[in-house]
Amino acid sequence: MLGFEFDIAAIFVCFSLWIILFSSRILPIKQNLLYRWMLILTTVSSASAIGSHFLYRMPSMNHGILFIILCFLNYAAFNLITCVYVKFIVASAKSKMDRNLIEKVIFTVPGVIVLICVPFLVYFKVWVFTAETLHDVLWDYILYVVAVFNMLFGLFYTISKHDFFGRRIVTVVCVYTVVIFMIVAVNLIMKLMLLNFGVSLGLIFIFMTLQDPNVMRDTRSNSFNSKGFDLISKEWLSTKKSFGIIGVHIKNMSFINDKYGIEIGNKVVEQIAPLSRIIIPNSYIFHLRGTSFAVIAEKISEGKVRDFVDTLSNKVKIRGMNIPIDVVACLMEYPKVFHDEKQLTDLVEFMMDGAYHAQKSRIIFATQEHLKKIQYDNDVLVAVKQAVQDSSYQVFYQPIMNVQTGEFETAEALARLIAPDLGFIPPDVFIQKAERSGDIVRIGEIILEKVCKMICSNKIENLGVKNVKINLSVIQCLQRGMADRVIRIIDAHEIDHELINFEITESIADNSDSIFIENVSKLKDAGFKFALDDYGTGYSNMTRMISFHFDVLKLDKSIVWMAENNSDALISMKGTVDIADRLKMAVLAEGVETEAQAKILKESGVKFFQGFLYSKPLSEYDFIEFLKNKRNVMTV
After folding, report:
1. Which of 247, 325, 448, 586 has the most CB atoms less than 10 A away?
2. Spatial separation of the C-alpha atoms in residues 237 and 255, rounded to whole Å
3. Strand, coil or helix: 27
4. How distant, in Å, are the alpha carbons of 21, 104, 533, 590, 607 from that of 602?
5. How far apart are CA 387 and CA 486, in angstroms?
6. Cis peptide, bond prior to residue 335, ω within 30 of zero
7. Binning pLDDT at 50, 70 and 90, where does residue 47 land?
């Protein structure tokens, strides 16, 4: 019967896969190790089958030690393949630390059964039966049951995890299982020995799907990608080995692409992987996102991190040009700093963000203090979401004075969050979290509702207040139908639209998104006025001031404070005020804290002042009392 020829073909398939594996840089993770074991077992099974085939035809050798060893290797290797296959499937979806008791039992018991059965099987095949009476025995059937169980478990496990594996891989596993069963049937019925060849072909399918190196490769940087980083970090955490991670961020990549061209920018990215391997032996580099990378290795010293940053910053030469690279890095060590997968995930995100915004140091070394900050941020996020559910955000009001009349004609509504466990949470902290989580949309509506109720219950127009200014966030402005919801809330309280003004920052005003333009236009058409907030923080230009027809220009406190001690800044501020006045825009100065600042602003023509010199942000009750007291003073 045919069989010898198919085993030779299986050997050729296995050797081809070995060549591909050795020519590729593959991550040292359990999944890859298991695939190599499957390939080893298939190679050994095919080679031992060929060897035993030759020896069986030699009467003097077919009961010798070599023949017995080859038979043992053939039966053991072939029957262990399905056991390793199950481990490979599960390892593709889970790290060692995530596996439950049932999966651990399934990993162990079938392999033990195979190793117990194989010696007995070899004994019967070699010594008890002859070629004329050779047939399956009890040990064969036990091994058949183990193989069928492993194949079916692998099939149903893949189907149950279809959201993780995806349709393509589930289809391949289903087809592979059916094909193996068909080959087994052919082997039993027709005695056509296709098993090793069928398994070797299956290894090709697995290599192209579950084991596909391209899934974890980033071709642009010739490194691994974020998926590969997740896999190796989980794997190394499960083995409890010490290792370090360097987070790397190129801050000036936009400048490089603009000045030198995208091709040069790509070559800069390509330099990172080889440099990391030279400076940090046995390291693996991953392209996480954008211009952020991670280098992982078992031994990374602080000196190596400095060498890496210095080399990348000073010695990248492309086409004879020294390319200036502004690179920052952060070092995270296990178990010195982080201890589990969640801490690692949080720390990488936090440290990479810190590296991106680093101003003073090019290298940040992660500490336990960073983990405490991360825990605080996580607690803030919980508080943000809880406050949304409870509508427990408070609104404080900072009075704004018209210096020409001396009256407080307007105020800015400011969101405040006081959590039961954390106390007062600074606005810049919880607003950033709310924007990233999407809760800022609902928070904006809660604040608007509370401002409307305050206006109605206190009749603030009778206290001299002409309008209340409410901030609109970037995320709010980019929500379809935002303007309609805002108008609906205000109209439900029967509030005159002139009593509500909206503030948008320069960064939002720079947005040309059609939804943003539609929302702002609807609100303007409905009679709401707009202020350009934080003017002078980095996005300023006159075109934007003109095109949006803002009613109020709010000078950022940084301009106010700089103008107090810098003559050039003062000249610039006076020019801005003059242009705004000609455009019929009222100018409001934020952060007024000293009489000297107030004097300079008055002389510059600023008409509205907001700051601690006049009042800090007040609760609703204190704000109303403040207005009443000022009203009584004016009356007297």
Report:
1. 247
2. 37
3. coil
4. 75, 77, 20, 13, 7
5. 20
6. yes
7. confident
Q: Can you read off the two tokens belonging to residue 150?
A: 């492993």
Place of tokens 């300023």: 540
The answer to whether the beta carbons of residues 220 and 266 sit under 8 Å apart is: yes
Total residue length of the chain = 636
133 pLDDT tier (thresholds 50, 70, 90): very low
Residue 354, helix vs strand vs coil: helix
- Which residues have C-beta within 8 Å of that of residue 557, sequence separation ≥ 6? 590, 591, 611
Nearest to 67 by CA among 77, 79, 78, 53: 53
Report how far residue 451's alpha carbon sits from residue 172's, in angstroms, rounded to the nearest whole number: 59
User: Amino acid letter at 203?
Assistant: L
Adjacent-strand bridge partners of 530: 502
Beta-carbon count within 10 A of 335 CB:
12
Which residue from 154, 151, 164, 348 is spatially nearest to 245, judged by alpha carbons?
Answer: 348
Query: Long-range contacts of range 224-228, CB-CB < 8 Å, 24 or more positions apart?
Result: 224/27, 224/284, 224/285, 224/286, 224/287, 225/286, 225/287, 225/288, 226/286, 226/287, 226/288, 226/289, 228/27, 228/284, 228/286
Name the residue with tokens 């509500």: 500
- Structure token digits, residue 24: 């590729």
What does each C-alpha distance from 478 to 228, 428, 515, 517, 519 come to in angstroms? 34, 20, 6, 9, 8
Sheet architecture: strand order including 217-218: 217-218, 223-225, 284-289, 292-297, 243-250, 327-334, 363-365
- Distance between CA atoms of residues 407 and 405, nearest Å: 5
In this structure, of 204-218, 389-403, 575-589, the range with the lowest mean pLDDT score is: 204-218
3-state secondary structure 500-549: EEEEEEHHHHCCCCHHHHHHHHHHHHCCCEEEEEEECCCCCCHHHHHHHC
